[in-house]
Amino acid sequence: MDDLHRLLAKEAITERLLGYARGADRLDLDLIRDAFHPGAVADYGDMFHGTGEGFADFIGEVHPPMQTHTHHLSNISITVDGERAGSECYVIMHARTVGADGVAHDTASHGRYVDAWERRDGEWRIGHRRYLHSLDELWRVETSLFPPGGSRDRDDPSYGVLA
Description:
Helix content: 25-40%
Structural class: alpha+beta
Strand order of the largest sheet: 2-1-6-5-4-3
CATH topology: Nuclear Transport Factor 2, Chain: A
Radius of gyration: 17 Å
Number of helices: 4
Distance between the termini: 32 Å
Largest sheet: 6 strands, mixed
Number of domains: 1
Order of helices and strands: HHEEHEEEEH
């Protein structure tokens, strides 16, 4: 594999990772599903074990009650070997929930995605994901400077500029 093909593969994989995170934040379950090959293993430890499609459905159930959330990806390492690749990606998921008592709490969950990728029919997607959890932080929110902007669906302004 020449350098150009390796670079294009790494870019395609990075775009899939970012699309996955965007899908989680916009509650766009199709974007989450697009990161995985059909039937791919999604092993999130004690949180979830099943397929990529099943994990998208899981996100569709557990994220809507949250007031807002963001997924931040960093330290993306990718190796490419022909039609297969491996990646490690750090993730921080920050979420705000409001209890029945009206008190807001923020949670930050830190971990890593360790993914085995396959290129099928010209598409790089995850064949097997393992989420490795590192730590959680939880704190009470006393005040918020600004309300959340945008929306957690396809009405979000980002869809217009990224169309």
